[in-house]
Amino acid sequence: MLTWINSPPSGGDRYLFVDRDGVINVDDDAYIKTVDDYGFYAEALEALAWLKARRVGVIVISNQSGLNRGIIAWDDFWAIHESMVRGIREAGGDLLAAYYCPHRPDEGCSCRKPAPGMILAACNTYPITPETTYMIGDRTSDLLAAENAGCRGVLLDRSADGTELAPFEGADGSFDRFPGLLEAVHSIFSD
Ligand SMILES: [Zn+2]
Predict the structure, then answer these.
(1) Is 123 annotated as a binding residue?
(2) pLDDT band for position 167 (50/70/90)?
């Protein structure tokens, strides 16, 4: 598991888990391999700025098996990460932390979603109550990881934008579904 921890936040006690590819940026079946492959969703940047204004600690939980598959170079991976953080900050948002799983499915690790390892690691680092914390993602594996960690899963369904929703199976169906990150966070943090 790869962990990036930001400077401690100031005063907030609310947290949100988000997937990266397909949630913050446009996903690519051929993997996000370089900074040039990385394209933000404008509404996601807006959502992250909105969350920062409300002192919600946003934690990225992302499978990046392209690393151990040898498809994504390590230098490029961290360059993408740094570029993402910079872009989010320029738009007025921030991240509290990011957890990445570099493993291939056949490695049988405990961090690759749908395993809850990354979420549980974050819950050990921060005073997070899983039962009242949401995990937003665009795949079944995100909802299952949320379930397995005892969190509340939220499905981002961008199919209205022309993004094909990944085949969906296994999650228990008791999750909310939103067409974008901004709508999702407005609903979750409505107060
Ligand atoms: Zn892993």
Answers:
(1) no
(2) low
95 contacts 53 by C-beta, under 8 angstroms: no
On whether 101 is known to bind a ligand per the annotation, the reply is yes
Q: What pLDDT does residue 7 have?
A: 84
pTM of model > 0.85: yes
Q: How far is the CA of 146 from the centre of ligand 1 (A)?
A: 16
What pLDDT is attached to residue 11? Answer: 73
- Kindly state the tokens that stand for 9: 């936040």
Q: List beta partners, residue 153.
A: 135
**Cα(129) to centroid(ligand 1), Å:** 23
Strand partners, 100: 2, 62
pLDDT of residue 78: 98
Domain boundaries along the sequence of the chain: 2-188
CATH class of 2-188: alpha beta
Token digits of residue 153? 């899963």
